[in-house]
Write a structure and sequence with these properties.
elongated, about 180 residues, Thrombin, subunit H, about 60% strand, mainly beta, about 0% helix, six-stranded antiparallel β-barrel
């Protein structure tokens, strides 16, 4: 089933210009899946009618990525969606986002194990397939699974992710690339 047939109403959406610069984090007010257009709470002032943009909708079970074009009128704009997008030399384009997050639990053998002192991290980027974040040095290893909670545009998001790569910045921090299991 195409991601365009899902229901994105009330979901958080990150809007970027065509160069990948983050413009705004907002939420979907209405989504018409028949004509594939959505109305968001706030259209970035940088975007005018007929401008194109990139969208990352933080929907469950995984985020969805779209191209968009601003349509409608000055007083009643909406975003027409299309699935074609420019890709990096990887499976899913990354979008920069800097927001604090917390990791309250590890997942081991499908069992949630709360952490006594949850780990505070900072998101670096997000894509349709995963997230990269910075945490205190050597907090995780490849293969670790955990819960993560973060807030974007006053909406709390929760996800379960799996560490797939690590870049150490000894002795201060490490950057962790993670694949979404669920959001």
């Amino acid at each position: 089933m195409s991601a365009l047939t899902g229901d994105f109403t009330n979901q958080t959406v990150l809007i970027y210009d065509t160069n990948g610069n983050h413009l705004i984090s907002t939420h979907v007010v209405d989504y018409d899946k028949v004509v594939k257009q959505l109305t968001v709470h706030t259209i970035p002032e940088e975007l005018k009618l007929n401008d194109t943009c990139k969208l990352l909708i933080l929907s469950a079970p995984t985020p969805c990525e779209f191209g968009g074009k601003i349509k409608g009128t000055l007083h009643n704009p909406y975003i027409a969606l299309f699935q074609g997008q420019t890709k990096e030399n990887r499976d899913a384009a990354r979008y920069l986002v800097t927001t604090p997050a917390i990791i309250p639990a590890y997942i081991i053998d499908s069992i949630v194990h709360p952490i006594q002192n949850p780990i505070k991290v900072v998101l670096i980027n997000i894509s349709t397939s995963g997230v990269r974040f910075r945490a205190p040095f050597y907090s995780f290893e490849i293969g670790d699974e955990f819960q993560m909670h973060f807030v974007i545009n006053n909406n709390q998001k929760a996800m379960i992710a799996h560490v797939v790569n690590v870049k150490d910045n000894e002795p201060i921090s490490s950057d962790y690339g993670c694949r979404f299991i669920t959001m």
